[in-house]
Design a protein that fits this description.
- The chain has about 350 residues and is of the alpha/beta class.
- It has two domains: about 1-130 and about 270-350, 3-Layer(aba) Sandwich (Isopropylmalate Dehydrogenase), CATH 3.40.718; about 130-270, Isopropylmalate Dehydrogenase.
- The chain has ten helices and 14 strands.
- The strands form two sheets. A twelve-stranded mixed beta sheet has the order 3-4-2-1-5-12-11-6-7-10-8-9, with helices on both faces. The chain has a two-stranded antiparallel ribbon with strand order 13-14.
- The protein is globular, with a radius of gyration of 25 Å.
């Protein structure tokens, strides 16, 4: 059974509400062994306030988690003050504590994947350069070359090297995490009308097209660069397995427009599985009972799938078959194959 760590998020937001709602359905416990990293007292407060009947099993360490139960691992014994709808230093500290404890257990091999309920502290998990932020729903997979970069700085932040590295991370994640054998990746342009042959900008000519050519030479099916308006407006995204956007709004705007609900954030390029619902702490509705658990549920489904996919993808590499033949090159540089020793011994001189 896959063990999934789920952090409680900002304790003044909708984190506990969507966690408890998600596990109102007992069949969810048949898919994984969930471990909520948080506070039993805060969980009990929300359960009573919202009238949710979800039961949980309190534990102190991840190895105490039981299959078929919703396990709640106590991150701190300190009292956490609840200020519904308010982002406070205390609520953010509680979110960070949960993340740090979950990360330590992942590193120790006690859990297989991590799902984070909404909190600003989650941003600390995917700041390393090798991480590729992806937005995923039923219709789209969009990866971002740059994230949280001011528009005026995007042009300088995009280089051939960065595009190639991000595309390679995306390609490998599609193969390993999502088991797409030969992914097709659409690379977006930066300027309107894909630069109009240099009239509206030269990034497409000088940076993006050379990056695509290098990817093609590496055996990666990358296409573009495509202008955003016609690419998404005409539905061309349906012909590809993923889209590589140059900046945040270029990816996020069509993602939210085409499928506004139930989206997932996935961080590719990490040694562990990390997913999250594609929405914030929703302080404006905290404690009202109106939060939708769909996105968190989808994030959990994906974490389970990716964890299993990585195991099946990596398994053949653990015990590769030994080579039976060795390549030799003669003076003409033509490749020949050596005859196995047993055959050489059987051969009689004429």
């Amino acid at each position: 059974m896959v063990r999934v760590a789920i952090t409680h998020g900002d304790t003044n937001g909708v984190g506990y509400e969507i966690i408890l709602k998600m596990f109102e359905d007992p069949t969810m416990l048949e898919l994984c062994t969930p471990i909520i990293y948080g506070s039993p007292k805060v969980a009990a407060y929300y359960r009573k306030a919202l009238g949710i009947q979800t039961q949980f099993n309190t534990i102190e360490t991840a190895d105490q988690a039981k299959d078929g139960r919703l396990n709640l691992l106590t991150v701190t014994d300190e009292e956490i003050k609840i200020d519904l709808g308010q982002q406070t230093e205390e609520s953010e500290a509680a979110a960070r504590q949960a993340i740090e404890r979950a990360r330590a257990d992942i590193d120790a091999g006690l859990v297989d994947a991590l799902v984070t309920a909404p909190a600003a502290a989650n941003n600390n998990l995917n700041k390393s350069p090798q991480v590729l932020s992806m937005l995923i729903n039923d219709d789209l997979r969009i990866a971002l070359v740059t994230k949280n970069v001011a528009i005026k700085d995007v042009s300088e932040a995009i280089t051939k090297h960065i595009i190639v590295e991000k595309a390679k991370t995306l390609h490998e994640s599609l193969r390993r995490d999502m088991r797409i054998s030969t992914p097709r990746i659409a690379v977006m342009a930066l300027n309107p009308h894909a630069g109009a042959n240099g009239l509206l900008g030269d990034e497409e000519i000088d940076v993006i097209k050379p990056a695509i050519e290098e990817l093609e030479q590496a055996g990666i099916q990358a296409f573009g660069p495509y202008a955003s308006d016609t690419f998404f407006g005409n539905g061309d995204f349906t012909k590809f397995d993923a889209v590589l956007a140059m900046y945040y709004d270029q990816g996020m705007t069509p993602f939210k427009t085409i499928a506004p609900d139930g989206g997932i954030r996935f961080s590719a390029g990490l040694p562990y599985v990390l997913t999250a619902p594609d929405h914030g702490s929703c302080f404006e509705i905290a404690g009202q009972g109106n939060a939708d658990a769909t996105a968190l549920r989808n994030a959990l489904y994906m974490a389970i799938d990716v964890a299993r996919n990585r195991v099946s993808y990596d398994a053949p590499m653990e015990s590769p078959l030994p080579k039976l033949y060795h390549e030799k090159r003669d003076d003409s540089e033509k490749v020949r194959f050596a005859v196995p020793k047993s055959k050489r011994e059987e051969k009689k001189p004429e």
